[in-house]
Structure formats: structure tokens, C-alpha cells
Amino acid sequence: MFETIEYLKNYNYWHKNQVKTGYKRDIYLLKIKKYIGNKLIKVLVGQRRVGKSYILRQIIRELINNGVDPINTFYLNKEYFEFENIKTANDLNELFKQYLKKYKPKGIVYIFIDEVQEIEEWERFVNSMAQNTNSEYELFITGSNSHMLSGELATFLSGRYIAFEIMPFNYTEYCGFNNVEKNKGTFINYMRHGGLPELFNLPDEETKRHYVSSLKDTILLKDIVKRHRLKDVDLLETLFKYLIDNIGDMFSINNIVNYLNTNKRKTNNETLGNYLKYLKESFIIHEVERYNIKGKEKLTGNKKYYVNDLSWRNYLSSVFDEDIGKRLENLMYLHYRQNGYQIYVGEINKKEIDFVLEKEDKKQYVQVAYSIQNKEVQEREFGNFMLINDFYEKKVISLDEFSLGNKDGIEHYCAWEVL
After folding, report:
1. 3-state class (DSSP) for residue 229
2. Contact criterion met (CB below 8 Å) for 176 and 60
3. Which residues, other chains included, contact 257 with Cβ-Cβ below 8 Å and sequence gap of 6+?
């Protein structure tokens, strides 16, 4: 462990190291800072490569700027090769004891463990530190699988943690990072590339496509196939490609099974349902249920699926048409998810409302369209709202150059004005 603690100091602030903290993501920092100073374990979950590690380092930098001794921060990123020997909770505990022995921190120690799911029985270490009555520890952990929240954390840490879902850069962050103004042109560029932070540093489309493909392989093979001991990797790949080719379309698992069987790819509802669950747990795919607006109840059967970042669709899809309307719909879903809304696909009198949004005691309805300049499209997007007999906010969002303003109590927005 002596060698490991020597490696560890290269990634910590103990010797005034200049650790990279990246673009400051205030949308998350402001939420997390509200919970600093209590014993709740702060859990950052989200897809791989969306910037969770940078956010942890930004929190450490904020603590130090506010007077915390750098020695009192302990940061371990399990993805770094140097820490390959930290395989179990016992290994982690031994490394932490070596840190305490060598640096002798006084007062609260802030513990940061990145990609904690890579450590076997990690929850034992986290649980022990959180409940330690002899010393003061405050823990921050990250993971790339939502099963943490319903499995290990729910079992060992029920009621003693707060979770934050970290997502790719939104449009506002994209403009800030690239120092560009918000307008239709920059919004289209954002749609064409996606919000994965590393994409902003890559030189050309071929390199970006290779990066996204490699990330896909890592998530599918490491986070899903290895974790769940899956045998049919090809089926998982096929399902993922089907979902990214059909973002924003309404279908059921049975539809996918029939499609695959027709194409001589035999499977069944149970197997496909499990594979779909694993994709959702890895955060690369999101599922949206239908909601009966009149009956005020969720509906079973067909659902919609969106990707966690448009780079999956942009660089890996076998669909060659741009289908900008569906991409815009996907972006709006991500925007509202990031802002804490519960999201459904609305249904009323066999007509569809793209999004029914709920947050606390408020509700709003959103229609998304590439353009509403066509009178028929305009009548459809605005007309569906007329079937709803309540007074909650109603919005139509499109990529038109100018807003039409308010029409019969329904507000029209240009997409880049909303994000």
C-alpha cells in the first residue's frame, strides 16, 4: 500500500498540486453545496464520461477555497490504472488508514471515491465511514449505474444519502465552454455534436465518431455485460442500435421482439426486457411512460425512449436522414430531466402531447416541432392543447427563426431561448 499512497498524492491537493478541475458546472455545484456540512452521503450518478470526476474535483477546490486544509481531502478515482490493486472494501480501508497515518488530518475529513462500483463491497466502507462516531467524515461518491440507488445504497444506507444525476453539458454550458452566443446557429451545432465534454476537444468528425463508439463499447461491455454476466453481446448491441435509431417513437418491448424475430434474430420479451433495464441503469437510454391527461393516470404498453446525449444518435445511428424534429424532442426531454421534472408522454382523445411535466405541485404541457410555419403543423401542435380543460402552462417549442408569441393562451418559443 506504500506505493499506492505515493501514487495517490499525485491526484490530490496535499502538496499544492495543480489538479485540473475543468469547466465549472454551477448547475450541479449549487445543488450539492446545499448539503455540504452534514452526514448525508453525497452520491453523483450518471453515464460514464459526463464529467462526474471533474465535479468532484471542483467540490474539493471549493472546500479548500473556503478554508479546508487540503490534507483533509482524500480523493481516489478507481478508473486510474495506478489503483487497479484496490479491488475490495478491505483494500480501500487499508489505503485510507495509510493516508490517516501518514498525513494525520485534524477535524473533518472529506472522502471522495470516483466510480465506486468498481470496488467489491464498496458499500461496507462507505457505511462504516458514514456511521463512524469516533471521527468526522463526509463522503462523496460517484457511480455509473443507477442500480446503486435501488440496490446497494438502498440496502445499506437507506435514508442517509442524497443523489444527484449528472448529465452531459446542456446548451448553456456548451455556449459557455466554447465562448459563443446563444442563437439558432450555435444551437444547431450543439445538436449535431452533443454534450459529452470530451467531444469539444476533439479535432474532427472521424475522431469524434471513434470516441463515441469506444465509449459505447466500454459502457456495454464493462457496465452491462461484465456486471450482469450476459452471454448475448450481439443482442445487446442490436437493441441499443434499435433504440438510437428510433428515438422519440412510440413502441413496446413486444414490437422490438417482433422486429428482431422478423429479421431472424430470435429472442423473447423477458430477455429483451432485462437487457433494456440494464441499458437504462447505465443512463445511456431513458424511458418515458404514457399519461392519460383526462383520467390522470399512467398507461401501460407503448413507451418512448430517448438517448442520454445526441452524440449516440449523431455518430452511431444507421438512420441517415437528419430527422431534426426528433433530435429536438430528445434535447427538450434532457433539458426538463436535468431540471428535475417528472416527464410523461401525454394522451388525450387519442391525440398526443409530447411532454406532460410535473414538479412539486405544478404541471405544464409541451409540444415540440421542427417548424410550425406550415399551417397544418401549426393547427396540430396548438390544436391538441385545446382538448385539455385545465389552466396549466402550455408551450410550443420549435426551431423557427422567430417566436409567434402567445396564441390563445399558448406560448411559442424558439428552442435556444428555452435551454
Report:
1. coil
2. no
3. 267, 268, 269, 272
**Element at 95 (helix H, strand E):** helix 89-103
> What pLDDT does residue 158 have?
73
Residue 240's SS3 state is helix
Where do we find the cell 450539492? 32
Distance of CA 59 to the CA centre of its chain: 19
Question: Which residues have CB under 8 Å from 8's CB, separation 6+?
Answer: 75, 76, 82, 83, 95, 99
State the DSSP code for 51. S
18 is written with which cell numbers? 495543480
Residues 50-102 pLDDT 10s: 999 999 999 999 999 999 999 999 999 999 999 999 999 999 999 999 999 99
What span, in angstroms and rounded, lies between the C-alpha atoms of 247 and 38?
A: 41
H/E stretch holding 291: strand 285-292
Asked whether the whole model's pTM tops 0.70, one would answer yes
In contact, 414 and 385? CB cutoff 8 Å? no
DSSP β-bridge partners for residue 41: 161
Written as nine digits, the cell of 125 is: 466502507
Cα 385 from Cα 371, distance rounded (Å): 17
User: Looking at residue 301, what DSSP letter applies?
Assistant: E
Cα 106 to Cα 136: distance, rounded to the nearest angstrom: 9
At residue 320, the pLDDT reads 67
Report how far apart the first and last C-alpha atoms of the chain are (Å, whole number).
47
Q: Which fold has domain 2-165?
A: Rossmann fold (3.40.50)
- Grid cell listed for 200: 469539444
C-alpha cell at 231: 452471454
Q: Look up residue 120 and give its amino acid.
A: E
SS3 373: coil
Residue by residue, DSSP assigns 6-33 as: HHHGGGSSTT-------S--HHHHHHHH
Rounded-to-integer distance, Cα 69 and Cα 111, Å? 13
How much is the mean pLDDT over the chain?
94
Matching residue, cell 457496465: 223
Exposed, middle or buried by CB within 10 Å (0-12, 13-18, 19+), for 184? middle
For 399, the grid coordinates are 426551431
CATH 3.40.50.300 range(s) for the chain read 2-165
C-alpha cell at 172: 448553456
Q: Which contacts qualify for 155-159: CB closer than 8 Å, 24 or more apart?
A: 155/123, 156/123, 156/124, 156/126, 156/127, 157/41, 157/123, 157/126, 157/127, 157/130
Round to whole Å and give the CA distance between 179 and 31. 24
